[in-house]
Amino acid sequence: MFHVFQYQPLRLITQNSLSSMCLKLMLSRPVAFAQIWKSWFSSHSLLGKKNIILMGPPGAGKTTTGRIVGQKLDCPVIDIDDDVLEPTWNMSVSEKLQDLGYEEFLEEEGKALLKFSASGSVISLSGSNPMHAAGMQHIKKNGIVVYLDVPTAVIISRLKSKGTDRVVGLSPGVSLKDVLQFRKQFYKRWFDIRVLCGEDVAAEVVAEKVLDAVKRYQDSELETFISTRSGRSGRNMEEDSHKLYFSDVVIQGLALDGGLFVPERGLPKFTAEEWQGLIEATYIERAQVILERCIHPADIPASKLAEIIETAYGENFSCSKVAPVRHLAGNQFLLELFHGPTASFKDFALQLVPHLFAYCIPRSCNYLILVATSGDTGSAVLDGFSRLHDTDKQRIALVNFFPEDGVSQIQKSQMIGCQKENAWSVGVKSDFDFCQTAIKQIFTNSDFTGFLTVEYGTALAAANSINWARLLPQIVYHASAYLDLVHQGIISFGSPVDICIPTGNFGNMLAAFYAKMMGIPIRKCICASNENNVLTEFIRTGVYDLRGRKLISSFSPAVDILKSSNLERYLHLIANEDGQLVTQLFNQLENQGHFQLRKDLLGKLQQDLVAGWCSDEDCLAAIHSVYSTTGYILDTHTAVAKVVADRLQDRTCPIIISSTAHYSKFAPAILRALRIAEINQNPLSQLHLLSSYSALPPIHWGLLETLKKTGNGDHQVCAADMSVLMSHIETLIQNHFM
């Protein structure tokens, strides 16, 4: 058996001279000595008895990178091809491959790996090692597997320039691209950490990225969360002893002080080379890379995260591109976010979050998810949680509160039709702001939540956009839209774009801003409001004023919102995490109905955001105009964004308009915009009439199926009273969990 034992860097033969040198340095330059010792200790404690195992396709640079990492850590370096396989076989790898053939070679290679053992080393695998399951299970037991993820086109170019023909699986009729694509499934199965490697990135840089990634992997303490109503400067010892991680905030939803969770050290940043490496990637591949950097593997391992992402986006979306970008006219492009099962952008988060939640929660407790919706969230969250495995449904249930008379008839039919054995809808005789505020108050009512835990063994959690996990999938599609424009040749990477989003609760807009912070070249984020334009006025003036404001029902109900919850996260960011200021502002809003930003903060805000609004009449006119000129039907929310984009864009760069819902969900308004005189009140009849137009995009398949199933489905309705809502919650818990 081939053994390599842990390397001892402090050699006894140099002990006296080393001690003398250290003593002199410590006495003469104590700060320099401390820095050198800290650096040495950090490097060697990084490895310990574990191995760093470099994995990737042939041509990824594993051998060169491994040597540099080994030098930096002062530890043994082992190349499986050169140091294990060839000495074992007494012949070159290429000769062995030619002698045995593809399948027998993989088996022999795997057997050699099973006999191999090492400790405290840097190991460079062969490109085909990951295809032998038993061999990889053996070597992974004592190591951290680092995947050097190099774009396929770059690998092909490198191998051709070297004249390499020693690639396992390459044969007549099978291209190198096919071989490399086939292998990706095995690399994805085994890695713990992914390191993105661009075309022109030096091996020294890759080695540093490997070391940084291993440090991150081993230290989850680096990725904690704080409340927007606290801050690093305001943390006390008690808070430090109760650090919160991704899995904690997914479960808890809302901070105990009423604030929203944000990552204490901010979001990860991608280099331009790393983003460019994703241009050729699929949507699912982009999602995995981005989310891996936002979710620590101690919370959700990369392999499990990949499984969850594949489940969420693999088959539940009607378009293979998941979130395609379509040219509308001039410099305007539509980001179509309605191809999920319930026909709105909410599906991107709510096909994913239920599985994240189910993985993160402890098995010892039942959970009831509380949701408030202004329309689209309801059916999306009901559908998402109803797709959990049966064992998870037994311990996770959901109740969705929505304004009984504040959503479209089709939206209401969807929410009724999406009810399942663990998911229910409750109409509230009020507006969305009441529903959202009520849920926040319930979460901060420790007497009630404590009673539910003690009496029924059930905890409450949130799945609204106030939950941090809801925002991450939205970052993905904004980044992906930009990469798609680069892939289509519309722009080159680094060229700016503007983003225009119909905005109510500010979550979608915040996600676009986060994508910008992570390195996507977004110039301006344009907020588009309907007549409930409190957010537009705030962005223009710095005054958030709800005094005397009443919610106006519009043709774009998902943005019929006066209190934008996620705005708090943005203000916390531009205020340099001044939790005290954020607390003051939102307490004033709650108690006095208004607040005003300082002049310096308003200046920062207006560098990032611009805003406009449009009336219902302008919205319908835009729908009619676009259909008349292009044959494409916008939904009412996208039309709001289109009107605002037309008014505010300067046409010096492309603008991506978020198409947040399918027009089928708002059939009466669409038919009115298309100037249909008589409109049947039956939602199914309305959709059939719309389908007769043969417009783009076609009628949404999932929506049509849901409405066919709904029939005379029923739901509960309650008064706008906190005690009534809490009574409903208790009854649902009794019925489902007891």
UniProtKB/TrEMBL annotation:
Record SUPFAM superfamilies: P-loop containing nucleoside triphosphate hydrolases (SSF52540), Tryptophan synthase beta subunit-like PLP-dependent enzymes (SSF53686)
Keyword Amino-acid biosynthesis appears in the UniProt entry: yes
Cofactor(s) it depends on: pyridoxal 5'-phosphate
InterPro entries tied to this protein: P-loop_NTPase, Ser/Thr_deHydtase_PyrdxlP-BS, Shikimate/glucono_kinase, Shikimate_kinase/TSH1, Thr_synth_N, Thr_synth_N_sf, Thr_synthase-like, TrpB-like_PALP_sf
Domain of life: Eukaryota
PROSITE patterns: DEHYDRATASE_SER_THR (PS00165)
Pathway where it operates: Amino-acid biosynthesis
Residue stretches making up the Threonine synthase N-terminal domain: 240-313
GO cellular component: cytoplasm
GO terms (BP aspect): amino acid biosynthetic process
N6-(pyridoxal phosphate)lysine sites (modified residues): 346
Any matching Pfam family: SKI
Keywords: Amino-acid biosynthesis, Pyridoxal phosphate
Keyword Amino-acid biosynthesis found: yes
GO MF annotation, one: pyridoxal phosphate binding
Entry's family note: Belongs to the threonine synthase family.
NCBIfam families found in the cross-reference section: thrC (TIGR00260)
Protein name: THNS1 protein
Species of the source: Chloropsis cyanopogon
Phylogenetic placement of the source organism: Eukaryota, Metazoa, Chordata, Craniata, Vertebrata
